[in-house]
Amino acid sequence: MDFDLIISNGILVTASEVLPAGLQIGIKDGIIACIGKDLPVSSTTKIIDCEGAYVTPGGVDSHVHLAQKNSPTGDGWETGSRSAIAGGTTTILAFASQSRDDASLYPVLEDYHRKSRGQSYCDYGFHFILTNPTDAILQTELPALAADHGITSVKLYMTYDAMKLSDRNILSVLLATRALGMTTMIHAESHDMIAHIIAGLERNSHTAPHFHALARPRIAEDEASYRAIALAELADAPVLIVHMSSEVAMSHVRDAQTRLLPIHAETCPHYLFLLSAALRPSPEDPFSGAKHVCSPPLRHHPSDLTALWRGLQNGTFTVLSSDHAPSSYASPLGKQLGMVDGIPRFSAIPNGLPGLETRLPLLFSQTPACLPPEQAKLSLPRFVELTASAPAALYGLAGRKGSLAPGADADLVVWFPGARGRRVVRQAGLHHGVDYTPFEGVGVGNWPRWTVLRGRVVWDADADVEGEGGGVVGEKGFGEYLKRGRGRVLVGRTGGVPRGMEVGEREFWL
Ligand code: DUC
Ligand code: ZN
Ligand code: ZN
Ligand code: ZN
């Protein structure tokens, strides 16, 4: 075979093993054609010499907010997808958000196609956010949209006035998505607990950014996570609880998994690396804490960080995503919305942090590729599983994305050999559309040297494209829309009997 590209002299990492040195990846027409030794080189074959560095699948970030109406100063497709490839992520799953008054999902889908078409540097798909799950949507539109447009997952909120669903509505969605073999993502925080606390804080004039963390305590995540699991158990439906931030909430997931319920969980780099102290004012800027406002909030205690790392190690978490949901800080329409007439009001600060570009380097830094083995928090295969293969499988892209195997899209990251990729994260070096990073000054042990998407080099850290040392060499519009298949349930199983019910009892009311 005449290969277009051969990735040579790298150490390939899959979700199950670190392969022996000396293997090459042969790429033809954007697909991994074979993995082998001494692959034939023709006059048109390009070769990437990895110089002994690790090669991992291109990142799959399954939780990304781009072009959202509720963050007017956030990232659009162009800047968000550009930052994805600069950080080694080749596939993103972003949200097409239904507003309460949208009676049909078709205009919502068209709107997001319009925002993304021709704009993307990486491949992308959509999840629907459902805020008005009518019978027509659940019974007629979702099946058709899954079959015709490959949208096989939805996200629901238990909090936020504009998005929150009742438990009854959540059950209706779960029963519908279960029948379709779809995965349902749930943002689990107790709306009423939080609303009550915010009202009290405001009554007492406690409105500075750091009160955001106090307003959304761990018990609010704990209660809602347990409730989400109970609803999923009653419906016998697979769910993924998104962006989990704390230990007790995570322990409910663990217990559910022990009972073989199909409960998946996700966490994000900010919950692993940052604490709520970041919401305190800096000496130069009393409002700087607004940069770290996200929900669930950053937590107070290092014990939560330790617990989350344990959850990544022991399989409680199925995926690690960025929850990239940025708003610019300096713009009055961004985070500064929370400064009302010179008085801070944390409840008006748009929630969410940028993190698409830094997700892979931050996590890779905690593997034996960058640390002595006894200090590493994750194995290299587990890094690949959490950041690429598991999200691809859970969301219906298995075999195509997130894998270094023949037949898969040739999406991969070549890291720097040894310590040559060490960096300090700086806003000036990032490619998103917002004006700060919450990881400013954090050291990472490596950075993608090349990102390859469907056989094309789209990021080359040594190219001096923008005169800034490193560059996006891919093209806007090269990223394609992904029609996804049915996802795989990766933990537990469906077909169980809810606790406290007898076999056959559900059938009386289903
Ligand atoms: N919380 C959300 O629920 N969504 C976007 C970002 C965030 O912090
Ligand atoms: Zn959320
Ligand atoms: Zn989110
Ligand atoms: Zn650049």
UniProtKB/TrEMBL annotation:
GO terms for cellular component: cytoplasm. It is an enzyme of class 3 (hydrolase). GO terms for molecular function: dihydropyrimidinase activity; metal ion binding. The keyword Membrane does not apply. Keywords: Hydrolase, Metal-binding, Phosphoprotein. Its cofactor is Zn(2+). This is dihydropyrimidinase.
